[in-house]
Amino acid sequence: MEKKACLSILLLFLFFSIGFAKIKKMVYPVIANNGYSEINVLQNNFWEFWARSDGLVGYNSMKKSQGGLFTSKRIPLIWQEGIIWGGIVRNHNTNTEIDTPRVGGIHYRVGTQAGHVIRIDNKYQIDPTSKGIFKINKNWQKLAEADLRRELALLLNKGELQITSNEVAALRQKYADNWENWPVELGAPFNDMNQNGFYDPVLDENGYTLPDSGDYPGMEQATQTIFFVINDLDSAKVKKLSGTEPFGLEVQITLWSYDTDFLPLAHTIFKRYVFINKSDQQIDSLFVGQFVDADVGDYSDDLIGCDTLLNLAFAYNGSDVDAEAIVRDLPPPAVGYNLLQGPLIETGNPDDVGIKDFKLHYGFMNLPMTSFVYLAAGGDLVDPPLGVIDYVLQMYNMLNGYIPTNDLKNPTPYVIGSGPKKGEPTKFPLGGDPVNDPEGLLGDVDGAGWNMGPTDRRFMLNTGPFTLKPDESQEIISAIIGGVEHDRLSSVKQVKSISKYLRTIYQNQFKNVNPIPDAPRVRASPFDEYVVLNWGWDEQSVKAIEQQEKNGFRFEGYNVYQLPDPKARLTDPATVKIATFDLINGVTQIIGLKPHPENGRYYESLLQLGLDSGVKHYMVLTEDQINQKPFYRGSTYYFAVTSYNYNPELPEYPSLESDYKVVQVTVQGEKPGDRYLSEPEQEIEVVANKESDVTCLVKVIDPSKVTGHQYQVYFTLDQDTNSTTFGEFLWNLKDLTKGVDVLNRQPIKKYQGPKPPNKIDENQIIVDGLLVKVFEPAKYLKAVVEVANAQYPDGLPEYEWDSGGMPYHGNNVWLSLSAPSDVNCFYISAGGEADAIDRILQNIFNAEGHDLEIRFTEKGGLYSWWYNDSNKVAAHVPFEGWDVGRVTYDDPSDDVRCLTGGYSGGATVGVFDFAYQDPYFNFPASDWIYLRKPLDAQGTYQVYEQDVLSGTWNYKWWDHSVSVLSKIIICDFTGAGTLPQTGTVIRFISSKSADEDLTFTFSARGKIANDLDLLKMDIEKINVFPNPYYAASLLEPDCFTHFVTFNHLSEHAIIRIFTLNGVLVRKLEKRDNSQFFRWDLKNAKGRPVASGMYVIQVEVPEINKQKILKLLVISSEQIK
């Protein structure tokens, strides 16, 4: 409904009304849009939001109507909004109040003017060059004329057909000027890429900023940014608004938006206000209120509310049908104002952290929404009267969270209108949950209980108080959120859901705002019967896609598509999704909201369907997936690869898919004179220089890129303390033929258990057409074997080995009986839990791939109870613990004596005995045995023994040793509680991880290129197709284009076409790398050739060879 206002009607209405109604809507005078610097509009697919250079926003001064329109159908949400401030001015020197509170800003009158405040001769003035609105579009150089015409139609209030070419050129130039002369010196935000706090753009040859090379204008990733500066120095304007003097404030305003399919961003306009005290006086008890006159569709049936947990105020429709929405075929929408950042105040608590200027400040905090107030048409409360002192008193009370009265000392609070606390005072009226409690039974919900029914509403979201000293600044950031779901309450739910996510964006200082993942960089290689797609060749691209987190979104997988033509879209019915390669993490079906291609609204849909197939960076295709037929040699096919991500914390929009670039490939064999010597997915033999549990697999991906060089995988320890792999070995790939590294710092894939799983991600970088995979088990024990006993102290003979111990030349004793020749038959188990070998392995990583032994000897050793400090107890035991190195059993030079002991006392502290039962088989079990490995000379067994025998126990050896095995129990199968005999050796064989000495070498056969003998042979393969040519070909894009194609051509070829009687029809010459060449079936004069048989001579001058072909052409005219 059109809002009207004139003075006579307004006075008449106020005389008869106890409240206010729709006639209160103010209509502002039209300002000439001079060069689009006075009035401008921020827009994307969902929003049209107006701004004026004097500070009035959310109001369309061109049409004198609502200035916040939502969805592609532009339904009204906001009639007008503004920022209002109120505080107490104090003499900065005496700290005394100068007068009553002052109020300024933008309400139904504008108390501000355009311009940056400067001081000249100790007087404040307005910089005339700073007046106006500055707007940029990051895509300004790519804007189509149609886009500019649509924008001009809004800015000039004209039809698109009325827009002239000169006006289009002027707007494009305005974008260029603003991009080049972005007013950073006035406070306009910029992307500080080098983080030095200064604007350092890199310019192109035309003087325009290059966003990919240095600092650039606007907010990061924002499509459109509007910036302008206002101030309250015009005393007449301020008095007309509030009847008081100005504060002397400058306010820098930034608005920005994003063009994206990601709903939380697409539905949001962001606002930033920077307040600067330009006066000589201090402002105390300063509050700022975000005033909103919401018109949700038809303004006469609205409700409002607030959410203190989200710092959110919102408006929504009071009935299930809205007059403005229904004519647009929309459900009733909703709108929310979200305070993301309030003023920064000092707390002195170092644990507190606030944000200002997109930087963290410790010992500070940002004020939240401190109150919410509202007015309802037809209610008891009326707007503060403009231009008189009553306005100041009433508005300052409202900024403090009270109803608009003149009494500042005894303000009147709002009261809760519904729910169990009805009647209680509050600064957050209507703070209930209309989505889950629409009747207001549990909380204060608008339209329920004492609260008025749906009418015209307006509200203020307030924050404060804070102090602003001369030249100090404060910053407030908020978001305007639109919601449109299947009904009025689900629209509110959507607004709240978006609000929650925006908090994450804000807390990350608006970095990586748009979580849409990067598009993979794809290369396609054609072969005779297959096509190889490779998106793993660019390491930087792969890392950007797979390792970068964007506000909670992480990489999940890749999709591969075949398209029917280069202009087709992924949503076209003929496009086929060929494959999905995703992480093996249990995330398969991802459901969320997806935009409808026609109306732009979001509906719940299947977003992605993963298979837990494992990530790959390539695909070998052997078939045309669209037609379900083998590839046709000489035909061109179109493919695309996308990446997609996942955020489980956002159930409504949990996944986004990247953009893509169509890759076209023409199926063909090797070029004449070339031969590939390997096949796709062919495994290459790899040679290791020593034994380990590390596996290196090499596979050919793209035979056309294989060099034939020799390569070596070697390992280095990550010593970067900031790295996620610090302290781990990484693998590197060196091209030994060239003597250069082609890959560095690649993580070794880990798996649990002795054998690799069936699925291992192939998400490695593809180098020179090769995929190298390096993986190893997580550190574990491969076996626990008895390798010697009293009968065979030099080693068990082979007939004493069992199947479990045979690979290690012994008898498996993990939960298995010892060798048949043992008198004291035993087995090894873990204390505390049945079959819990992981209890033994708690610290096996400290063994660093070394094997360990428990040796039963005549001399034996010490066993101490580590933490029994009161008794400092130790006992002699008939065994010793040893680190025997890395598979160097016959070399005692690297053996290191370990410290033996335990934690529990068993039956008797100080006596190593059989006080337990094995939890697995229930046989008698010994005290638990722990082994500690020395780290240096101060942790050796000798130091340990000396300290323990001294009786004083200084425990220095503890800090110089580390645990390697724990909770070992020796179980006596005879039941007598006896230990193994002297001469018995129990070996704990650990997994052998990578180290600096380990290498793998390999070489893959490359290709033969430009071989003259092969080229001579390949001349015989030269052909032309289709043959016969019968009026048309399936390869032709339309009925106007006709051609035949020659194949198997060398780089240089001369083609002569004759009639049967020897008349030369056309001479063609080819000079390019392709083996194909097209003849357009025209003669030398450019006319279509007649039907008939043609003789074609194809000459290859470099080898003085030729091939004669015959071609039958039947024209479409002859068929007719």
Descriptive notes:
The protein has 1120 residues and is mainly beta. The chain folds into 6 domains: 348 residues, Beta-galactosidase, Chain A, domain 5, CATH 2.70.98; 83 residues, no CATH class; 145 residues, Immunoglobulin-like (Sandwich); 83 residues, no CATH class; 210 residues, no CATH class; 108 residues, Immunoglobulin-like. Helix content is 11%, strand content 36%. It has 14 helices and 71 strands. Strands 8, 11, 14, 15, 16, 18, 19, 20 and 29 form a 9-stranded antiparallel sheet that branches. Helix 2 packs across helix 3. It starts with 6 loop residues before the first helix and ends with a helix.
Question: What is shown here, in short?
Answer:
This is T9SS type A sorting domain-containing protein. With about 1100 residues, the chain is mainly β.
Question: What topology does this entry show?
Answer:
Elements: H1 7-16, E1 39-43, E2 47-52, E3 59-60, E4 65-66, E5 68-70, E6 75-90, E7 102-105, E8 113-114, E9 116-120, E10 123-127, E11 134-137, H2 145-155, H3 165-180, E12 190-191, E13 216-217, E14 224-231, H4 235-242, E15 249-257, H5 263-266, E16 268-277, E17 282-294, E18 302-307, E19 312-317, H6 323-326, E20 334-341, E21 344-346, E22 353-356, E23 359-362, E24 364-366, E25 371-376, H7 389-399, E26 414-415, E27 425-426, E28 457-468, E29 473-483, H8 488-507, E30 523-526, E31 531-534, H9 539-546, E32 554-563, E33 576-582, E34 589-595, E35 602-609, E36 618-621, E37 623-624, E38 629-630, E39 636-646, E40 663-666, E41 675-676, E42 683-684, E43 686-688, E44 695-700, E45 710-717, E46 729-735, E47 740-747, E48 749-751, E49 766-767, E50 770-777, E51 781-788, E52 811-812, E53 826-830, H10 837-840, E54 852-865, E55 874-883, E56 896-902, E57 916-917, E58 924-925, E59 929-934, H11 941-950, H12 956-959, E60 961-972, E61 985-990, E62 999-1003, E63 1007-1008, H13 1012-1018, E64 1023-1025, E65 1029-1030, E66 1044-1047, E67 1052-1059, ...
Parallel strand pairs: 48-50, 54-56, 65-71
Antiparallel strand pairs: 1-2, 2-5, 3-4, 5-6, 6-7, 6-17, 8-14, 9-10, 11-14, 12-13, 14-15, 15-16, 16-29, 17-28, 18-19, 19-20, 20-29, 21-24, 22-23, 25-28, 26-27, 30-31, 31-36, 32-33, 32-39, 34-35, 37-38, 39-40, 41-63, 42-44, 43-62, 44-50, 45-46, 45-62, 46-47, 49-50, 51-52, 51-61, 53-60, 54-55, ...
Helix pairs in contact: 2-3
